[in-house]
Amino acid sequence: MSASNSDTHAHAHGGNYFEAARGLKSWLITLDHKRIGVMYLFWVIAAFLFGGLLALGVRLELWAPGETIMSADTYNRFFTLHGLVMVFLFIIPGIPAALGNFVLPLQLGAKDVAFPRLNLLSFYIYVVGTCMALYSTIAGGVDTGWTFYTPYSATTGGSVVMMTLSAFILGFSSILTGLNFIVTVHKMRAPGMSWYRMPLLIWALYATSIIQVMATPVLGITLLLLAMERALGIGIFDPALGGDPVLFQHFFWFYSHPAVYIMILPGMGVVSELIATFSRKRIFGYRSIAFSSLAIAIISFLVWGHHMFVSGQSVYAGMIFSFLTFLVAIPSAIKVFNWTATLYQGSISMQTPMIWAFSFLILFTIGGLTGLFLGTLGTDVHLHDTYFVVAHFHYVMMGGTVMAFFGGVHYWWPKIFGRMYNEALAKISAVLVFVGFNVTFFTQFVLGTRGMPRRYYNYLPEFETLHKVSTMGVLIIGLGVTIMVLYLAKSLLSGEKAVANPWGAKTLEWTHAASPPVLHNFDETPVVEEPPYHYPAPGEESRPTKVPA
Amino acid sequence: MSSPNGGGFWMPPQASTVAAEVDSLFDFILYLNYFFFALITVLAIYFAMKYRRRRADQEAAGQLDHSMKLEWTWTVIPSLFLFVLFVWGFRLFLDMSTPPADALEVRVIAKKWDWRFEYANGAKTYGELIVPEKQAVKLVMASEDVLHSFFVPDFRVKQDVVPGRYTTLWFEALAPGTHQVFCTEYCGTKHSGMLATVTVLPPDEFKKRYDSGFEDPNAPKDPVAAGQQLFTQRGCMACHSVDGTKGVGPTLKGIWDAEEKMADGSSVKVDDNYIRESLMDPNAKLVAGFGPVMPSFKGQLDDQQVNDLIAFIKSLK
Question: So where are chain A's domains?
């Protein structure tokens, strides 16, 4: 990148952040949040592509009953690794660590995050965790499912200890990023940037960071206990050693349910930005959206038991968790209504990021609504651990977070790299992914209600047609993603130069920073004088912005 | 799209007393889903078309950014629906969790990767749960190894089976027929092969079969055929192939009378005593290249059955 930009306008203040320093070493020891964000971005996209290939393997195996392309044990490793890679290496760091790292200080009007060295450290911890995860797949593999349920995970072969330690290490990266963001939001806001003037992405990342800091240690402890049980034979979860397997599930979901919101909240933040910008509208119900992020972050700690309605926990525990689950549904619903209302009377432009935002809105709505079947005790019994659940969480995680991630990548791409991409190809890619996604996962709702259990290598003949349709959907997604990789690569090499604010956005990274920004983000510290997304009302003059030349 | 026995496009046939109620609740949520999905999608697409940007510099037609009335409406109305779902779902769940006092009790033992059913009179069945129609049946379930889960889609019931504790599940089948049982908690290599059936019989026929200890009147008399039936019913084929392919355990093809190399370097000739020992104490002499994963069948096979299995293994040339 730096090479391709080197001959462009040499800025009075030393050029953009790519030009500020040269060579591999300048990247490896950089403290610039933008460079760290870019490095994260490439890692998480690589993880996404790897996890996607694993998903392709899973779906191809399920093309027909019986053995199609791999053995049962290989299949079990494939779906386990798919889950682990997508959750721990892609979705959790995806928006906060990659896009968030780049955007958060810019949106706050800050020069950097509060602790730049800590930021680099969390990147390297993430790299080490990734390498450990990859090593454990080579050294024996893991076939426990990403949930590591005991006593299976305490007794099966493979390199479970290495993999759990990898997730343990990755947790530190997540905690440090969260900590960094919390302090940055509290202490680094530009003059005039009051809490209610912060863009909604910041609120979402702030809420996410709270969960990261508070919940991740529980996962760390749980995985460490599991590793101790395996390595030292200490009985904690394995009944053969006097332990309790259901206790593991409580521990695991005490982290992993809040983690669901670590995954979705940043996506909600991104979509708030996209919908406001591409409608040229002040966001409807700013405070509701901001506080619903915090409400979700808090209530998310109290709903873990809804993963365990048929696990053997007490009926009354089930009752309480069902009630609290419905409680957390309300702030999510409020956000969806607010986004829709924001479109009213807007000046709506269906550029690529907005197509992704619409995909998010539609798919997340389906994901949220189908969650009602699972939060309701009487219907969850039938649907639990079937393909219905698989479809539901893919609508939330992929239909929600991944769509928002790609929307964000396309939205901030010109800011990050200073280049535009081919808009026509980008739209085709977005539509292909949307269509392929629905073909893949809508069929899985039907498979699930009809009784098809998840994590099945083989299946009864009556499920074959739906499995075939689902597999074909993955091929469509694959085509869309391939096109995306190609035009984004082309954009890096020879894309048209981006202007400072190609979308007419109102947040500081667009109004006060160049594309790409200079090393310290702004030529002079921005002073914030109005709420976010303050587009002019009819007849009102727009406040002049300070876009750098 | 409903069929005579209930069920339809989404749900399988309704074969238990709770199925119709589960499906009513399912349908209620489904209509809520359709309504709110249509509301959001239609509005979003309508706004996107009506308010599309026609000139590059076009500003929004209005900047409405809050309305207390609207926000209260879309907070309160969905909340009321959610409360209905909670109450309805919990009441149904209570019914589904509370077996009637007169329920027929059957013990269920799950292990990788088969199901065993034990009745009060000592009768045992493998891979087939036989129950009378119109009679509540309570399953008291335990696992010998890892987590499993007992799922009968046609009955709308599911319950995890947990090692180290008992879990229960009950149902009342509406009519004679057979229904699929799945294991729905991931349990390893043959998780997807851990299947069973529920056979529902008319009460008099059930009583007859029950009193005879579920002896199969058509059971083969020939030892090889009887051994083959045991081999299938007891789940041996999950790990041991009969065609030479390597599975979780060694193949049994051509194993009789052969010299097998053991994990400790010694070698053993496969004869009557070795097969018997391998069934009762599988880890005593492990074949090289395989892990100590086979469960013991001590107390689960009588001498006649061991003889039948040996006859079957002998026949696998």
Answer: 3-511
Collect contacts of A240-247 with beta carbons under 8 A, ≥24 apart.
Answer: A240/A151, A240/B163, A243/A150, A243/A151, A244/B164, A245/A149, A245/A150, A245/A151, A245/B147, A245/B162, A245/B163, A245/B164, A246/A308, A246/A311, A246/A312, A246/A313, A246/B162
Cβ atoms of A454 and B183 closer than 8 Å: no
Going by C-alpha positions, the residue among A203, A295, A215 that lies closest to residue A262 is: A215
Neighbour-count burial of B4, counting CB atoms closer than 10 A to its CB (0-12 exposed, 13-18 middle, 19+ buried): exposed
A206 membership: H or E segment, kind and range: helix A200-232
Integer angstrom CA distances of residue A239 from A22, A221, B14, B227: 57, 19, 36, 34
Q: Is A306 exposed, middle or buried (0-12, 13-18, 19+ CB in 10 A)?
A: buried
Name the minimum distance, in Å, from the CA of A519 to any CA of chain B: 31
Whole-angstrom Cα Rg for chain B: 28
- H or E segment and range at residue A216: helix A200-232
Separation between Cα atoms, residue A60 and residue A474, nearest integer Å: 9
Confidence label for B301 from pLDDT (cuts 50, 70 and 90) = confident
Q: How does residue B282 score in pLDDT terms, banded at 50, 70 and 90?
A: confident
Sheet holding B136-143, edge to edge: B124-126, B114-118, B104-111, B136-143, B167-172
Contact A372 B12 (CB under 8 A): no
User: How many helices (H) and strands (E) are present in chain B, helices listed first?
Assistant: 6, 12
Rg (CA), chain A: 23
Strand, helix or coil for residue A332: helix
Residue type, B228: Q
Q: List, as ranges, residues 147-176 from B with C-beta within 8 Å of A.
A: 147, 149, 151, 153-154, 156-160, 162-165, 167
Strand B148-152 relative to strand B177-183, pairing: antiparallel
ipTM passes above 0.85: yes
List the structure tokens of A147. Answer: 């949930």
Cα-Cα-Cα-Cα dihedral sign, residues B61, B65, B71, B75: positive
Q: Answer yes or no: are the C-beta atoms of B109 and B166 closer than 8 Å.
A: no
Residue A2: pLDDT over 50: no
B114-118 and B104-111 beta bridge pairing: antiparallel
B84 touching chain A per CB within 8 A: no
Q: What percent of chain B has pLDDT over 90?
A: 58
Q: How many CB atoms lie within 10 A of CB B10?
A: 16
Which residue would you say has higher pLDDT here, B215 or B126?
A: B126
Residue closest to B314 by CA, chosen among B250, B256, B238, B241: B256
Q: Which of residues A108 and A543 earns the better pLDDT score? A: A108
Is A344–B64 a contact, with Cβ atoms under 8 angstroms apart?
A: yes
The Cα A278–Cα B47 span in angstroms is 13
Bridge partners, B199 (sequence order): B130, B178
Q: Per CATH, the architecture of A3-511 is what?
A: Up-down Bundle (1.20)
pLDDT digits (tens, 9 = 90+) for A169-194: 999 999 999 999 999 999 999 999 99
Nearest to A75 by CA among A62, A89, A85, A90: A62
Q: DSSP for A117-173, please give it.
A: HHHHHHHHHHHHHHHHHHHHHHTT---STTTT-TTHHHHS-SSHHHHHHHHHHHHHH
Residue B56 CA to residue A315 CA, distance in Å, equals 59
Give the pLDDT confidence score for residue A207 in this predicted structure: 94
Beta strand pairing status for B128-132 and B196-201? parallel
pTM: 0.90
Asked whether the beta carbons of residue A152 and residue B186 sit closer than 8 angstroms, the reply is yes
- Across A134-163, average pLDDT: 88
| Cα distance between residue B137 and residue A171, in whole Å | 46
- Given a cut of 70, whether residue B5 has pLDDT beyond it is no
Q: What was the pLDDT predicted at A15?
A: 85
Interface probe with B: pick from A58, A337, A443, A464, most Cβ of B within 10 Å: A337
